[in-house]
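Support request, please re-run this one:
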Amino acid sequence: MTMYRLGSAPSLLVSVLLCASRPALAQHATAFDLEDGARSFASTCANCHGPDGNLIPGIDLGHGQFRRPLTDKEIENIIENGIPSTPMPPSPFLSEEQVGRLIAFLRANAEPRPTTGRTGDAARGKALFEGKGECTDCHRIGTQGSRTGPDLTRIGRQRRAIDIEQSLLDPKSEVQPYNRQLRVVTVDGREFKGRLLNHDTYTVQMIDWDEQLHSFKKAELREYGFEDTPMPSFKKKLSAQQIADLVVYLSSLRGP
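Re-run finished. Output below.
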């Protein structure tokens, strides 16, 4: 889930978006609705406001701070038609359902979530990542670390600080589709476990815990399916201050 950037009027789209009364979809949005809204947001708005939604002065989408309220119909109109004489472009490629899910995601995104409430230190977080946290056993940053877990080189661009914190405290609560763990058993009884890389109607690709790449034809598998993430919770392993340090460090990772 990436977020946005821009500079002036385009900020009006999301800056104005979410103070309106909560739409019916937002009240009853499913996990699929929010995930689809997040994808739409990443593809249409992700280069404008930053991963935490706070790059535009006076606007902080991660904490629900906007400029003025709009009705859902006005929000829909802005998303579909843009704002004339501003850099805010129309988004005619989004269906009515996608627009509704995008609005639901934006509203859910602005709801307050618990945090450690502490100020972190990136240098201490880096030391934890490479040391006590043992994060490099699974994750990679740049050219250092393992490829068995998600690459974190650009995690600061891809996820909000609050979501990174949630993944550290309760990793099973939300697993991104491209980070799912897969188990397959071939017709001759061999078992493989690892991270899903890609799959389509006929094939599936994965990287196992020895960092070996595998591609299978689904028709030649006895069984295959997703498993729980092996990511451990750091709720009891690290203190609140250490979690804050680690979040600040990971949020600073924005790639080359």
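The chain has a mean pLDDT of 79. Residues 15 and 66 are 5 Å apart (CA to CA).
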